[in-house]
Design brief:
Layout (H helix, E strand, L loop, with lengths): L2 H11 L1 H36 L4 E3 L5 H8 L10 E2 H8 L7 E10 L2 E6 L2 H6 L3 E4 L7 E4 L1 H7 L6 E2 L2 E2 L13 E7 L9 E5 H8 L4 E6 L1
Parallel strand pairs: 4-10, 6-9
Antiparallel strand pairs: 1-11, 2-11, 3-4, 3-8, 3-11, 5-9, 6-10, 7-9
């Protein structure tokens, strides 16, 4: 009698045990597959969000917090750097592209980001409707923002201070939705983009700006 026959007879003799073993092995394999798939998707997401960004510059503080706030937009910014320092960095011949960021507000939990047209090129953004922000208090919103908040081009929204939707609303100025982005598969799907001047005017501060450089 060979080993396969012995194994088969053993399985037939202990059907319940065999069933439980097969069930546990299948369950373990399934869990492992899910974890590997989730790990791959998270890795791809991180790579998509940080692609083409070589250097992030911000105020003194936690490097991790600076990365989380400036690339992944999931933490409070460390603070501002002087505008003249940002301009000096952007003009350095070793810097191919500098993308300024002005943070601090949200719209129903979606981060409002003040920036310039270099941001469009950094993520190769494309529109599904409308146009990119240009004038003060014009915003271009990510696809998830438009879908979840049921927004269309021409709608008006109010920003709020901080990261939470329960924060105090800035009732003195209203943003106009000028455009909606195509789904990008990265963090920009969840952003509200405007020019830096709008963020400054919202807070009545024009001296400082955070800066993310490539």
């Amino acid at each position: 009698m060979n080993v396969f026959s012995i194994s088969w007879n053993s399985l037939k003799a202990s059907k319940l045990t065999a069933f439980l073993n097969i069930l546990l092995i299948s369950f373990g394999t399934g869990i492992l597959s899910i974890l590997l798939l989730a790990s791959y998707q998270v890795e791809q997401k991180l790579e998509n969000n940080a692609r083409d960004i070589d250097l992030v510059v911000g105020a003194k503080g936690s490097p991790l917090q600076l990365i989380l706030s400036s690339i992944f937009y999931i933490d409070f910014p460390t603070g501002n750097i002087p505008l003249k320092d940002a301009e000096l960095l952007a003009s350095n011949r070793m810097v191919r592209r500098a993308v300024p960021l002005a943070l601090g507000d949200n719209y129903n939990g979606f981060r409002i980001v003040g920036t310039d047209t270099n941001f469009i090129g950094l993520y190769n953004l494309k529109l599904s409707g409308g146009k990119f922000w240009k004038e003060d208090f014009e915003v271009t919103i990510g696809s998830n923002v438009a879908e979840k908040q049921k927004l269309n081009v021409g709608d008006k929204i109010y920003g709020a201070h901080g990261l939470a939707s329960s924060s105090d609303t800035h009732g003195n100025n209203v943003y106009l939705v000028s455009g909606i982005l195509e789904p990008q598969g990265n963090v920009t799907d969840n952003l509200v983009l405007t020019n830096i001047s709008s963020v400054w005017k919202m807070h009545e501060k024009k001296q400082l700006v955070s800066n993310s450089s490539e």
